[in-house]
């Protein structure tokens, strides 16, 4: 179904993050996010895909203001949130929430399920003047933690991984966010319950009017959940398209490699991998970050960064072989 184009909840332009590394005369910096741009419209899901170390979590943390951008711009609705601090930052963090990969580490072992939800509910204005206990029960029902009278009093160690992730999701929802950044929310869960959690997140998109940045290294779930997919490598965007197009008509050699590695994709053997070297994240790097592993590499790839090229409306790739 074709949906109406809406205003972006978040838009990111040429985002750059750098971290200092080394000390003394060896002092340098790595740039794990280098010129990343995207936007997410209301009610939409953007999947951010890339292998370990490609900069996915760093992007999520930067959108939350946990990590400072060293370049570029982040806009939340009409507000520039790139460099906000203090109260403005606290307000922003209410509208954007993050759910993490590890549901075991993200809950407090000495607090009950109800206590995890009580604090954010009390601290944030709620749409109606109901008793907190009623709001807690509503949240628990929303995320499928029932019967509520049993779940309310449980401690994290009494819950399964999937149930803990539901508590983490309920806690994020308690502040009524507009954007949920879900950072590999199912990768540490048993395979049997991954689909359930993704279904829950999909349902919340409609009932809670949420938009998502869905971070994953798995193209199958990126396609299942995302309206659009952004493929990241070495902190740069390799390809971007609506989910169907990206999977059916991949143009960047790295996307094709990811697809070939994705079980049941029908793309097995699409491209040989020439090396498993990790990308250079140094400040002084040149060219395409994928050049060292690319089966189609040309001389220009090692010296000149490829421009973003339009394939069709909404489908872009950054590859000299496509330019
Ligand atoms: N605070 C930091 N200081 C220095 N380097 C960092 C910091 N945070 C992340 N990095 C580095 O930035 C790069 C990108 O890390 P990031 O965690 O964003 O990758 P990722 O795509 O989320 O990977 P994964 O799939 O393993 O979660 C890595 O090389 C990482 O070591
Ligand atoms: Mg990560």
Structure description:
The strands form two sheets. An eight-stranded mixed β-sheet has the order 6-7-8-3-9-10-12-11, with helices on both faces. Strands 2-1-4-5 form a four-stranded antiparallel β-sheet, covered by helices on one side. It has ten helices and twelve strands. By secondary structure, it is an alpha/beta fold. The mean pLDDT is 92. It is globular and about 65 Å long. It has helices spanning 56-63, 86-95, 113-123, 132-142, 148-151, 161-173, 191-207, 219-225, 243-248, 253-260; strands at 8-21, 28-41, 45-49, 71-76, 79-80, 96-99, 179-183, 211-216, 228-233, 236-242, 309-312, 315-317. Adenosine-5'-triphosphate binds at residues 19, 32, 50, 52-58, 217, 281.
Short description:
This protein has helices at residues 56-63, 86-95, 113-123, 132-142, 148-151, 161-173, 191-207, 219-225, 243-248, 253-260; strands spanning 8-21, 28-41, 45-49, 71-76, 79-80, 96-99, 179-183, 211-216, 228-233, 236-242, 309-312, 315-317. It is of the alpha/beta class.
* Strands, total number: 12
Q: What is the count of helical runs?
A: 10
Q: Give the overall shape, derived from the CA principal axes.
A: globular
Instruction: Give me the secondary-structure category.
Output: alpha/beta
Largest sheet: 8 strands, mixed
Terminal-residue CA separation: 31 Å
Strand content: 15-25%
Question: Can you tell me the residue ranges where pLDDT is under 50 for at least 5 consecutive residues?
Answer: none
Order of helices and strands: EEEHEEHEHHHHEHEHEEHHEE
Widest sheet, order of strands: 6-7-8-3-9-10-12-11
What's the overall average pLDDT, rounded?
92
| Radius of gyration, CA atoms, in whole angstroms | 21 Å
Ions and ligands: adenosine-5'-triphosphate, magnesium ion
Percent helix, as a range, is 25-40%
């Amino acid at each position: 179904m074709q949906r109406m184009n809406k205003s972006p909840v978040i838009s990111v332009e040429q985002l750059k993050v750098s971290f200092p590394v080394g000390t003394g005369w060896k002092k340098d910096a790595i740039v794990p996010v280098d010129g990343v741009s995207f936007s997410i419209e209301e009610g939409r899901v953007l999947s951010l895909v890339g292998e370990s170390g490609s900069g996915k979590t760093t992007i999520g943390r930067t959108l939350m203001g946990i990590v400072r951008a060293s370049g570029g711009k982040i806009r939340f609705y009409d507000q520039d949130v790139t460099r906000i601090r203090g109260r403005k930052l606290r307000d922003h963090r209410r509208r954007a929430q993050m759910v993490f990969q590890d549901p075991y580490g993200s809950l407090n072992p000495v607090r009950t399920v109800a206590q995890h939800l009580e604090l954010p509910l009390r601290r944030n204005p709620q749409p109606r003047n109901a008793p907190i206990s009623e709001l807690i029960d509503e949240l628990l029902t929303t995320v499928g933690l029932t019967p509520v009278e049993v779940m309310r009093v449980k401690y994290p160690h009494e819950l399964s991984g999937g149930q803990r992730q539901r508590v983490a999701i309920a806690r994020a929802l308690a502040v009524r966010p507009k954007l949920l950044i879900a950072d590999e929310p199912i990768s540490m869960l048993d395979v049997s319950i991954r689909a359930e959690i993704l279904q829950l997140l999909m349902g919340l998109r409609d009932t809670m009017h949420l938009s998502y940045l869905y971070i994953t290294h798995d193209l199958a779930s990126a396609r299942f959940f995302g309206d659009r997919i952004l493929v990241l490598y070495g902190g740069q965007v390799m390809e971007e398209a609506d989910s169907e197009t990206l999977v059916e008509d991949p143009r960047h050699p790295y996307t094709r490699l990811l697809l070939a590695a994705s079980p049941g994709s029908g793309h097995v053997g699409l491209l040989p991998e020439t090396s498993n070297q990790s990308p250079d994240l140094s400040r002084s790097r040149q060219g395409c970050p994928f050049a060292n592993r690319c089966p189609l590499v040309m001389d220009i790839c090692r010296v000149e960064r490829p421009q973003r090229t339009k394939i069709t409306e909404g489908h872009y790739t950054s590859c000299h072989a496509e330019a």
